[in-house]
Amino acid sequence: MREESSYTIRLEGFEGPLDLLLHLIRKNEIDIFNIPIVLITEQYMEYLRLMKTLNLDIAGEYLLMASTLLHIKSKMLLPQREEGEEEDQEEDPRAELVRRLLEYQKYKMAAEELIARPMLDRDVFVRLNPQESEEAQEERIEVTLFDLLEAFRQMLTRAREEPAHEVVLDRITVEERIQEILSLLREEKKSIAFHLLFPEGASRRMIIVTFLAILELVKMRWIRVFQIAPFETIRISPL
To answer: Which residues are bridge partners to 193 per DSSP?
Structure first.
């Protein structure tokens, strides 16, 4: 196994396969009742490949959903019956998936609404934090794992090519990168743009290690990853 993939993060604290599908539907501005299954399957598999690159511990439910999508795709690609041929009234192969997505979306929205309600410790007795006074009035949209993966994919396209025979004895670890990110946040005393954590011309390994460090910090609830508005720059601040 390559050294860059030796660090594993379990995905239990992050989103699941239905969240990924809803993310893709929103990203592509797709009608949930008319999902282009070929496009969504290709993009879903691309995200799984990104997770594999990061050596994320993908739960079996992700792979089960991949099998489900591939099965639906195969049924959708079957030749259509000729007009006039006798045919049974068959349900759209996507129907069960759509039902699951709608039900999951309903409960997810209800949970988000509950979280948004005022809470005594969080919203009544507000902790004053002068370090973020400039951003206090700005609405924050929490960024999902899949938003981060998309940003990670974009960072990889900028990665510096490394010779296959290059040997570097002293390489930064995820734990060391975590400490560097925390130190940078303390120095800046405010949120910083996601892309600034990835030096210009950084190697592929540095990009992967940095991204794994960010995921670990999110999972430990040491940082917040957000946007001021949809599709705006992803920013990171300490919690």
So the answer is: 235
List Cβ neighbours of 225 (8 Å cut-off, separation of 6 or more).
Answer: 142, 143, 148, 194, 214, 218, 234, 235, 236
Among positive and negative, which fits the CA dihedral 228, 230, 236, 239? Answer: positive
Q: What is the pLDDT of residue 219?
A: 87
In order of 32, 38, 41, 72, 95, the CA distances from 76 in angstroms are 16, 9, 12, 6, 12
Taken in order of first residue, the domains within the chain and their CATH numbers are: 1-77+93-127 (no CATH), 134-162+170-239 (1.10.10.580)
Cα(137)–Cα(115) distance, integer angstroms: 19
Q: What is the pLDDT of residue 162?
A: 59
Q: Go through the chain and tell me how many residues it has.
A: 239
- The low-confidence residues of the chain, meaning pLDDT below 70, are 1-14, 80-90, 115-139, 160-170
> Taking Cα atoms as reference points, which of 147, 126, 161 lies closest to residue 215?
147
